[in-house]
Amino acid sequence: MSREVAEQEERIRRGDDLRLQMALEESKKATTKAPKKKS
């Protein structure tokens, strides 16, 4: 595998991680807004 390909895959993986993290944050906010649980 060439270095360029490895870097590209790393970038894609990082992008996926970022998207996943953002989705998690969004769902956390959504659950916090829901009046069911009061911590």
Characterization of the model:
With 39 residues, this protein is mainly alpha-helical. It has one domain. 79% of the residues lie in helices and 0% in strands. The protein contains 1 helix and no strands. The longest helix is centred in the middle third of the chain and has 31 residues, at 3-33. The model has no long low-confidence stretch (mean pLDDT 87).
Essential attributes:
1 helix, about 40 residues, single chain, mainly alpha
Strand content: under 5%
- Uncertain runs with pLDDT below 50, 5 residues or more? none
Number of strand elements: 0
Largest sheet: none
Distance between the termini: 50 Å
Q: What do the pLDDT scores average to?
A: 87
Shape: rod-shaped
Assign the structural class, choosing from mainly alpha, mainly beta, alpha/beta, alpha+beta, or little secondary structure: mainly alpha
Radius of gyration: 17 Å
The level of helicity is: over 70%
Q: What is the number of helices?
A: 1
Q: Topology as H/E string?
A: H
Number of domains: 1
Region (Disordered): 1-39
Biased composition (Basic residues): 30-39
Biased composition (Basic and acidic residues): 1-29
Short account of what is shown:
The protein is mainly alpha-helical. Helices cover about 80% and strands about 0% of the residues.
Write the layout of secondary structure elements.
Blueprint: H1 3-33
